[in-house]
Amino acid sequence: MRALVVRGGWAGHEPVACTDLFRDFLEGHGFDLRVADSLDVYTEPGDYHLIVQCWTGARFTAEQQEGLVARVRAGAGFAGWHGGVVATGFEAPRYQYMVGGRFVCHPGDFVDYTVDITGAHPITAGLSSYDVHTEQYFMHVDPTLEVLATTTFTGDHGAPETAGAVVPVVWTRRFGAGRVFVCTLGHSRADLLVPQTRMITERGMLWACGIVRDHDRDP
Fold it and tell me: Is the pTM of this model over 0.70?
């Protein structure tokens, strides 16, 4: 199996440190890794079972967007976290549609909040709701997502209009023959080292390429 890791963009999200955290995990599951520090890799030929992206603030060219979206629609898995997938490509509508959600704001910056696990899925199996201290992403999302975890906003931190809003934190999406996994946690390597978040992210990457299956939907 082949995996492509695409990392770069805003340095504050630690794209190198965060993606390096999962290199041993992916290689241990038999992936031959290619790591790219240019979005032009999406315009190059190459068959990948999994694409992991950590690139905040990307401005995709038409060719880059088309290369990525077409590859996922054809069957590649796509996985990522936080701003590396949802605070990027704002001018790329086909990318936005593929991912299924976009970052709007994080009131209060780093705050305490609860991640609520919703429903049964192999990605979140055995996990219960847990508390974190990080950015609480307020998202605009596609209503067709399969949401695996949510957070509820209190309306504090100067954003009273968000009070009671239940916003997805983890979701999956079928896109053509491909699969998309997104987790809005993961501002830094430290966030990804939270045991539950790390487990969700690892399982999500494996789900995106079909190693972890939905038992009720997959053969």
Answer: yes
